[in-house]
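We recall that each integer encodes one residue's backbone shape. We quote one record:
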Amino acid sequence: MAKGLDDDLQVVRELANVLADSGLTEIELERGGLKLRVVKDPAPVMIEASAPSYQQPQMAPAAAPAQAAAAAPAAEAAPAAPSGEAVRSPMVGTAYLSPSPDADPFVSVGTQVEAGQTLMIVEAMKTMNEIKAPRAGKVAAILARNAEPVEYDEPLLTLEG
């Protein structure tokens, strides 16, 4: 039995080396009745499991756009909802509206964008994920706040036209 365990541990070590050498983040191997899964970083499910820690801070930014809309009701709130298409976050993470702290934002309200153009970045597990425009259109509203947490499927901005 110990010999079999040693063999299994050797396979796990070899798979871990493949991960390190290849840049992959996950490998799954099934042999006979044995199924091995080696993951370099925690799986996205683990990120979602930690979502409750993000829910409470998210409530404050969600209220802030409503307050901003109340201050300027005709500017964004009414037209964006019926005619705009929400671009949603594909993951839990932190939204960044510009490529670096001292750079201009990728887009602003009123910017005409092309399909595939970078709208913002969502950082998840120290990986910067570009959020791209699904289609051409005009940015009607930016709902995410810079350097604030976002949830999976949360609307980040709306496009119209």
About this structure: Residues 2-40 form one domain.
